[in-house]
Structure formats: structure tokens, C-alpha cells
Design brief:
Strand order of the largest sheet: 1-2-3-4
Shape: globular
Helix content: 40-55%
Strand content: 5-15%
Number of helices: 6
Structural class: alpha/beta
Order of helices and strands: HEHEHEHHHE
């Protein structure tokens, strides 16, 4: 049965308690999908204009949050001895020019994508696979201010060769695939479900 756990991914004690509750209830963790993120639109900027607190707030959630979630999630997977699947959420902004102007966000996502690859190398011996999903622009509360602006939305749609921005439902299939045994030979890879934005 599913159960909610509210946690702050930037707070290690908070996350440690959340995973302890998973351990208490189930004794194991099969899948960890790290997708909590912030994008401080209006505050993020090119590095010479970027306030240090915007950098810190962005990296605290987007990179430190993934580090802490993986740290405690992987520990539980190792202790249970059943392997598992870790799925980290990257971004084309960490790889391509579509991240221009958002230096805190883009660098945090590049960090997540690098972490995904080194984790895959180190945890394969435990039967733990580590992969990344790289979504395009997805209409969520993270970028609601852009989606609600007709001019910005049209610009974002033009950036995607497929001709539209994505929905959360567009991410479901790849997540289920990576969580399942259908992807049991996949690790250290990034799966682009981005409407083609990274081919530009």
C-alpha cells in the first residue's frame, strides 16, 4: 500500500527519518526516483550576475537533495540485499545551450547527471542500477510562470522539434520502464524524453 511521507530533501536528518520509516514499514527499497527540484525563474542568471544565495538555494534542493536521497536510499537497498533501481532526473539545460541564462539550475542538473554515472559504476556490484531521465520542458508548477505567459509558452514549444511542451504523463512510461526488470541491463545511461530539444 502507498503511504505519503513529507520531507525536506535539503535536511539530512529529515530524509534519514523518512527512509527509516520505509525500512520500518517494508524492510526494503526497490526503486528510488529523485525528482524534487526548484528553478528560481527571475532570480537565476548568468554567473557574473548570479546572487550566491540563489546558487545555494538551487543546489541545496537540486543537487544536495539528490545526494542525500541517494545516500540513504542506496544504504537501504544495500542492507536489504535485493538490488534496486535509482532514477535521477536530469535536464537538457545541463548539457545544451537551452540552459543559457540559468547558471545555477543548469549546473545543478549537470551535477546530478555526473553523479548518476559514477553511482552506476560503484553500485552495480550490489545489483543496483542507476539511470537518469532527461525531460524536456514539462508543464508543472516548477515553470508555471513561463507556461502561463502565451509568448513564453510559444517560445518553449518552438524549441521542441516535436512541436509542444511535455506533460507529467509523458514521463510516466520511461520511469516505469527504468523501475522494472524490463530495463535490468541498463545502468549509467540517460534516457532523453525531451521532445527533441537536445538535438538542437
Amino acid at each position: 500500500a502507498a503511504f505519503p511521507l513529507t520531507t525536506d530533501v535539503t535536511d539530512e536528518a529529515n530524509l534519514e527519518a523518512a527512509f527509516a520509516e520505509v525500512r520500518r514499514r517494508h524492510g526494503r527499497l526497490d526503486v528510488l526516483y529523485t525528482c524534487a527540484a526548484v528553478q528560481l525563474i527571475g532570480d537565476d542568471a548568468p554567473i557574473h550576475e548570479l546572487p550566491a544565495d540563489v546558487w545555494d538555494r538551487t543546489h541545496a534542493v537540486n543537487l544536495r537533495g539528490v545526494f542525500l536521497s541517494c545516500k540513504h536510499g542506496v544504504r537501504l537497498m544495500i542492507d536489504a540485499g535485493n538490488g534496486g533501481s535509482v532514477i535521477n532526473c536530469g535536464s537538457p539545460t545541463g548539457l545544451t545551450m537551452c540552459g543559457a541564462g540559468w547558471h545555477a539550475y543548469s549546473s545543478s542538473k549537470a551535477g546530478v547527471m555526473g553523479l548518476t554515472r559514477v553511482m552506476a559504476a560503484d553500485y552495480a556490484k550490489y545489483g543496483i542500477r542507476v539511470n537518469g531521465i532527461v525531460p524536456g520542458t514539462i508543464a508543472t508548477s516548477l515553470i508555471q510562470v513561463l507556461v502561463d505567459d502565451p509568448e513564453q509558452r510559444a517560445h518553449l514549444e518552438r524549441l521542441h522539434p516535436i512541436g509542444r511542451i511535455g506533460t507529467p504523463e509523458d514521463m510516466a512510461g520511461i520511469a516505469v520502464f527504468l523501475a522494472s526488470d524490463e530495463s535490468k541491463f541498463a545502468t549509467g545511461a540517460h534516457f532523453f524524453v525531451d521532445g527533441g530539444i537536445s538535438v538542437r
